[in-house]
Amino acid sequence: MSGKSFFVDLTKCTACRGCQVACKQWKKLPGEKTRNTGSHQNPPDLSDVTLRVVRFSEKEIGGKMHWFFLPDQCRHCLDAPCKSGATLPDSIIVDPDTGAVIYNEKTAKESAEAIRSSCPYNIPRVNKKTKVISKCDMCNDRVKAGKLPACVQSCPTGTMNFGDRDAMLALAKKALAEAKAKYPDAQLVDEESVRVIFLTQDKPGLYAKNLMADAGPTGPRLYTRQEALASLARPFRAFLG
Ligand code: SF4
Ligand code: SF4
Ligand code: SF4
């Protein structure tokens, strides 16, 4: 198991949103109409044209207000749960060199809801009109050409790091040991199962509900193959009346 990984040191993130803009620019994705939700988080969520969003969380701890910032994106899981929602061969592929989990033209023919519901991090988003599902692809084209993902390239604070998985795991463990001196509750999140390894300075739940996998009492909600097939057949049944 090698390939690539991100190490995201949240103790350094200033929520400048450079990474969010860089993602839009590289992917040539449009801006979207947004609204004031009472938060600096803007747009308010991921979408089919916003593959990366910086989440803002404001919490009162010990009588003081604290900000927690989370640049959110697909985790490129080592054994990607979203694949369990797919029914067509090779409709969700894992790049053998980088480990990137990639959706393609075949994914567009799948039941978007089955795939979306299988993600324990609530990442993929569906275009309301075309029903095509999308998410971050690790900037696999850039990585294959020897470049950094656009979000990593743009980060001015050292929050975003990218490289060989072993090197990123080593960097994450070193940074955790250093962070513990200042933040006793600092921790790495799901580092053994994902390729986007976050270091938090406090409990992950303070950042966002989806920072950790939604394990719940019975594990992530995974569609069975039968459920996915049934959901694929639904539009045809409706058409046949
Ligand atoms: Fe799939 Fe979700 Fe994991 Fe990304 S984070 S690889 S969409 S299961
Ligand atoms: Fe966007 Fe590329 Fe970063 Fe993924 S790796 S969040 S597609 S810039
Ligand atoms: Fe945080 Fe870096 Fe993104 Fe700015 S560019 S929001 S510091 S991760």
Secondary-structure content class: alpha+beta
Number of helices: 6
The global form is: globular
Spatially, the strands of the biggest sheet line up as 8-1-10-9
Radius of gyration from the alpha-carbon trace, in angstroms: 18 Å
Low-confidence stretches: 216-241
Q: Which architecture of one domain per CATH?
A: 2-Layer Sandwich
Following the backbone from N to C, one meets helices and strands in this order, namely EHEEEEHEEHHEHEEH
Instruction: Estimate the mean pLDDT confidence.
Output: 90
Determine the strand fraction and express it as a percent band. Answer: 15-25%
CATH topology of one domain: Alpha-Beta Plaits
Topology, number of strands: 10
Question: Helix content range of the residues, please?
Answer: 10-25%
Distinct bound molecules: iron/sulfur cluster
Q: Describe the largest sheet.
A: 4 strands, mixed
Please write the CATH class name of one domain. Alpha Beta
* Cα-to-Cα separation, first versus last residue: 48 Å
Task: Describe what this molecule looks like in 3D.
By secondary structure, the chain is of the alpha+beta class. It has a domain at 81-138 and 228-233: Alpha-Beta Plaits. It contains six helices and ten strands. It has helices at 18-27, 112-117, 140-144, 150-154, 165-182, 225-240; strands spanning 4-9, 53-61, 64-72, 92-94, 101-103, 125-126, 133-134, 160-164, 187-189, 196-200. It has a four-stranded mixed sheet with strand order 8-1-10-9. The longest helix is centred in the C-terminal third of the chain and has 18 residues, at 165-182. The N and C termini lie far apart (48 Å). 39% of the residues are buried. Residues 22-23, 26-27, 51-52, 73, 136-139, 149-151 line the site of one iron/sulfur cluster. One iron/sulfur cluster binds next to helix 1 and helix 4.
